[in-house]
């Protein structure tokens, strides 16, 4: 039955994946767009930390965690874990003079994890890496004769991945994820002057693809019969992607759709038809402690030398990239996992917080992001499957220096469905 439910959900979500708006943030104008969480709802609710691994949940951030999938203590029992997530994000955008509220619904991930045998697991799936979705304008000069620059963009980068995790020594697991990145980013700049019908436009399209690898090493020694220390080191290697670019420039009369003279730019002669996009290495270290299957608390620190980011085709003048970093704290508590008398004692309660220095330095201002997360893991059926409901409130950016402050509220819904896929036949 769970297989049928999981298959129906995957088909439904895949249908909607290509219709999503992705982002409504003006900060998706920079880099490759607004970076998505890249983790399951369970991890997002704990501030986004990715060191924790158990036998019934997929961990998209930590490939070494696949080594723990399956029923603990049984070599002949295979488990398939289907997981999918959706999000609804409402954002209030505020400048120094005005404000507005907008919202977007997105697919967060589709994934399947398989326990091959005790200590060995694999997984594969698809998830968005970044989303582009902005529409804003800047005014220069005095009223009546101002120059109007309008900027809009959409698209983003997705990734298809395959992971393997193996416990090669007691309490020591190694994992690797191979990501294939692909996507399309479209941008449009329209320039006009008040009182003048003639204007100009610049359309650019980048088709992006390439591969990167994510390595993870987990060490989880038992402190005593019930408590475990969790340590993790993850390295997402530098992604050297390729962008195939096209550009159209021209003029219009009255409306950008009323094109007058528009021509393709010969990017090949300029050496810009095929350009590189470099996403620097991200290193994450984590430390946590918990009581087996009852509670856990952990901290993680990530850093990235974003000064090495390059995208030669998209020309943006008012940004400088600095080194980026993220501090995250989170955990969970399950009162009594196998309680027969109370359903709420079997519910898992999660919470966390995240402080992110995005590395974007716009108009001489650092763009930081702070979020608080919390939610519930609701058991379904035999307790191996669960429905995860999460919430996040946060703030990014600032209203100074003609910038935008975003206050957001995000609702996450995730399903983790587990089913037996193999059992050795036994003859009595």
Question: How would you concisely characterize the structure shown here?
Answer:
It contains 3 helices and 20 strands. It has helices at residues 2-17, 41-44, 267-270; strands at residues 34-35, 77-94, 99-117, 120-140, 147-169, 172-193, 198-219, 227-236, 239-253, 259-264, 274-279, 282-291, 295-304, 310-311, 319-321, 324-333, 348-362, 365-380, 385-397, 405-423.
Summarize the structure in words:
With 428 residues, this protein is mainly β. It has one domain: Porin, CATH 2.40.160.60. It is 6% helix and 61% strand. The chain is built from three helices and 20 strands. A hairpin with a 4-residue loop joins β6 and β7.
List the helices and strands and how they pair.
Layout (H helix, E strand, L loop, with lengths): L1 H16 L16 E2 L5 H4 L32 E18 L4 E19 L2 E21 L6 E23 L2 E22 L4 E22 L7 E10 L2 E15 L5 E6 L2 H4 L3 E6 L2 E10 L3 E10 L5 E2 L7 E3 L2 E10 L14 E15 L2 E16 L4 E13 L7 E19 L5
Antiparallel strand pairs: 1-4, 2-3, 2-20, 3-4, 4-5, 5-6, 6-7, 7-8, 7-9, 8-12, 9-10, 9-11, 11-14, 12-13, 13-16, 15-17, 16-17, 17-18, 18-19, 19-20
């Amino acid at each position: 039955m769970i297989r049928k439910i999981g298959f129906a959900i995957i088909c439904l979500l895949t249908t909607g994946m290509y219709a999503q708006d992705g982002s409504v943030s003006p900060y998706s104008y920079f880099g490759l767009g607004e970076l998505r969480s890249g983790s399951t709802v369970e991890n997002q609710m704990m501030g986004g930390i990715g060191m924790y691994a158990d036998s019934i949940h997929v961990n998209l951030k930590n490939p070494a965690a696949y080594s723990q999938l399956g029923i603990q203590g049984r070599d002949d029992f295979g488990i398939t874990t289907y997981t999918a997530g959706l999000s609804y994000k409402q954002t209030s955008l505020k400048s120094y003079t005005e404000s507005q509220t907008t919202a977007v619904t997105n697919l967060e991930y589709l994934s399947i994890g398989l326990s091959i045998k005790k200590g060995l697991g694999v997984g594969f799936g698809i998830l968005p890496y970044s989303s582009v979705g902005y529409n804003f304008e800047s005014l220069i000069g005095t009223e009546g004769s101002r120059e109007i620059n309008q900027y809009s963009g959409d698209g983003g980068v997705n990734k298809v991945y395959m992971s393997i995790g193996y416990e090669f020594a007691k309490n020591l697991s190694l994992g690797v994820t191979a990501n294939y990145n692909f996507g399309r980013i479209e941008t449009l700049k329209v320039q006009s002057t008040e009182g003048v019908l003639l204007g100009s436009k610049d359309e650019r399209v980048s088709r992006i693809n390439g591969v990167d690898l994510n390595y993870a090493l987990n060490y989880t020694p038992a402190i005593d019969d019930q408590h475990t220390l969790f340590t993790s080191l993850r390295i997402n290697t530098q992604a050297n992607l390729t962008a195939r670019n096209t550009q159209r420039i021209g003029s219009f009369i009255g409306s950008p759709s009323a094109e007058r003279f528009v021509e393709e730019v010969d990017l090949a002669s300029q050496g810009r038809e095929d350009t590189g996009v470099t996403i620097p290495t991200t290193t994450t270290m984590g430390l946590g402690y918990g009581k087996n299957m009852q509670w856990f608390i952990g901290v993680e620190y990530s850093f990235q030398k974003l000064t090495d980011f390059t995208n030669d085709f998209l020309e943006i003048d008012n940004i400088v990239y600095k080194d980026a970093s993220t501090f995250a704290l989170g955990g969970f508590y399950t009162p009594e996992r196998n309680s027969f008398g109370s359903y709420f004692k079997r519910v898992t309660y999660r919470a966390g917080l995240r402080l992110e220095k995005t590395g974007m330095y716009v108009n001489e201002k650092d763009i930081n992001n702070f979020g608080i997360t919390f939610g519930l893991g609701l058991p379904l059926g035999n307790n191996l499957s669960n429905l995860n409901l999460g919430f996040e409130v946060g703030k990014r950016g600032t209203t100074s220096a003609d910038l935008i402050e975003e206050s957001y509220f995000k609702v996450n819904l995730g399903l983790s469905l587990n089913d037996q896929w193999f059992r050795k036949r036994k003859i009595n």
